[in-house]
Amino acid sequence: MNLDNNAHSVFLLNYHLVLVIKYRRKVFDDNISSRAKEIFEYISPKYNITLQEWNHDEDHVHILFRAHPKSEISKFINAYKSASSRLIKKEFPSIRKKLWKEYFWSQSFCLLTTGGAPIDILKKYIESQGIKKGKKS
């Protein structure tokens, strides 16, 4: 397991983010996805975030990334959505036919943590701590 660290801690924080186009409009193609990914990679270091994997469908994008404990995830997501919306709509004016006003991304998003071990195994491990020869200490 490849863990991240800083001066005082060791950590592994992986997140799965799903961002959806406003009204589920089908505007993503390979070019727009590539540009959205470039913007993500440009903004993410400022928040101690590292892109691991990126893929898209016509109306949403899946992003796997790593973060640090001090990363402000919600601030990063808002900054990314704002910058990417503005730049993509400017660089790909055909999008305005399917989306109007300042909208590009849906206001909501799905953010999931990922981990090395299933939650049930972690629960059992934590429950077993402090047990010596069948007795809790």
What does this structure look like?
The chain is of the alpha+beta class. It has helices spanning 30-43, 73-91, 119-128; strands spanning 4-5, 10-11, 13-21, 49-56, 60-67, 105-114, 131-132, 135-136. A hairpin with a 2-residue loop joins strand 7 and strand 8 (135-136). Helix 1 (30-43) crosses helix 2. The longest helix is centred in the middle third of the chain and has 19 residues, at 73-91. It starts with a strand and ends with a strand.
Please mark out the parts with pLDDT under 50 across 5 or more consecutive residues, or reply none: none
Mean pLDDT: 90
Which structural category do the helix and sheet elements fall into? alpha+beta
User: Helix and strand succession?
Assistant: EEEHEEHEHEE
Give the distance, in angstroms, between the N- and C-terminal Cα atoms. 31 Å
Q: Approximately what portion of the residues adopt beta-strand conformation?
A: 25-35%
The percentage helix is: 25-40%
Please count the helical segments.
Answer: 3
- Major beta-sheet overview: 4 strands, antiparallel
Radius of gyration, taken over Cα atoms and rounded to an integer in Å: 19 Å
Order of the strands making up the biggest sheet: 4-5-3-6
Q: How many individual β-strands? A: 8
**Gross geometry:** elongated
